[in-house]
Structures are given as structure tokens and as C-alpha cells.
Amino acid sequence: MKLRVKRLKHLMGEGWHLRPAGGATGEAYVAEQGEQKIFIKRNSSPFLAVLSAEGIVPKLLWTKRLESGDVITAQRWVNGRELKSYDMNSRRIGRLLGKIHRSKELLDMFKRLGNEPLTASRFLEDLEDKAKQSGSADPVVKDAIAWLRSNIQEVNVEDYVVCHSDVNHNNWIVSEDDSLYLIDWDGANVADPALDLSALLYLYVPRNEWEQWLSSYGAELTRDLEKRMSWYMIAQSVESVMWHKDKMQVVELNKWNTMLYDVLNEVNV
């Protein structure tokens, strides 16, 4: 860590002060010099420039490649706040997510990087592998995986989009000038848009508001979309249950177990 900060300070030049910006990867820093303040990250999303150009993330200031091959990016620091759970049923969230999912530039960039789509089959195979590796004997997880396998024909789509894949409220920020951004794109995938929609709607939007929220996103609440969202919500709940169980995070584990139980009951009615 100290060596990394030393290299970044050398890259930034005299007078800059760096401090960790937090986050799971430990690769992000806040750089300050007088009244100047910027966000520095190592090996951020390779399509950050497109995200910046479309106003989805704070403005990209510069990109530099180090001799080691690492890429350092600098973005404008945004004074603002992370959204809370109660903010997430806002129609502007739907509009921005719709803009992201309809972005041809983002999709073209992702395809040029050679990434294969995260299909439902791939997602399920990954879950089954993780379940085997963890030795999970949880009957709800087993039932859920069996349901996913038997209903996988319900989630065949041809129109894949760039999905953020972690639309948690902590990744949405609103600036002092009321600009809305979706940050932390390291886990993005080309996938069924229902991957993002399921997590956002099930976690944050009351069921009786889904139709109105989806209207702001630019879609109708069809039976097909409902089936796909149910499938992906169950899949993401299984993934989260196994992850939090491995980390022994009891509060989050209980939350995701409840979500998994509720959605399974809903689809089996």
C-alpha cells in the first residue's frame, strides 16, 4: 500500500496529498492540492471514457499508463451524497438506467473488449460451481438452484445490454448541483437488462409502483419481463446468500435469505 501511494504521489507531482477513498478494492484515492480535489483510481473500468462522455459518471480528467501496465485515471471530484434506500424509487433513477441500457456506445465498447455475454446459463453454472465448492447444504439454496434450472427457458433473450450488475443505492450519487451518477463499474457485464432491473425493483420499489417506474425507464411491465426479473432476483439472492454466509455476515445473510424465501414463494404460488 505505501509503495503504491508513493508511486501515485510521484505521478501526481509535488504538492499533492493522497488518502484512500475507501471501497472494497483499496485501489481508489482522493488527491488534494490546495482547493483542487480529484478522484484517482488504479485499473478502473476500461470504458470509463464513454461513461464520462455520456454523463453517467463524473467527468474523466486524464488517463495515464504506468510502466507496470497499470492504468491510472483521474476524475472530477463530486461534492454530494450517496443515495439512500428511500431515494431509489425516483423516476430519474429509471431514466438514467434506461439511458445506460440503451447506450450503443457502451455496448460497442464492451464487445470490442472481447467480453462474452453473461447469459442465464453462464450465471447458473457459476452458482452451481460455487454451491459445490462451498458444500452448502442449505435446503432453500438447493431448492432455488433447482427452480432456476427448471425455469431457465423463461429467460432466453437476444437483446443484451451493458448492465452495471450492482445497482445498490451506495453506487448512486447526487452532486451539489443535482446531477445524478452511477459509479463503480468494475463488475459490469453484457447481460439481460432484467439483471439490473430485478435488483433495483425488488429491493427498492413497492410492487404497486413497478409499472410507473418502468415507464420512466422506458419499458412496459410485461409478463415476460416479470418472469425474467423473478429468475434473476432468485439467482442474485442465491449468490448473495452464499457470499455473506462465507463471510459470516449474519445480518446481510438473513436479509438475503428472507428475499430468496419470499421470491421463491411468490413464483411457486
TrEMBL record:
Keywords: Transferase. SUPFAM superfamilies: Protein kinase-like (PK-like). It holds the Pfam family APH. The keyword Protein biosynthesis does not apply. Residues 47-227 form the Aminoglycoside phosphotransferase domain. One of its GO terms (molecular function) is transferase activity. PANTHER family: CELL CYCLE REGULATOR CCRZ (PTHR40086:SF1), PHOSPHOTRANSFERASE YTMP-RELATED (PTHR40086). This is Phosphotransferase. It comes from Alteribacter keqinensis.
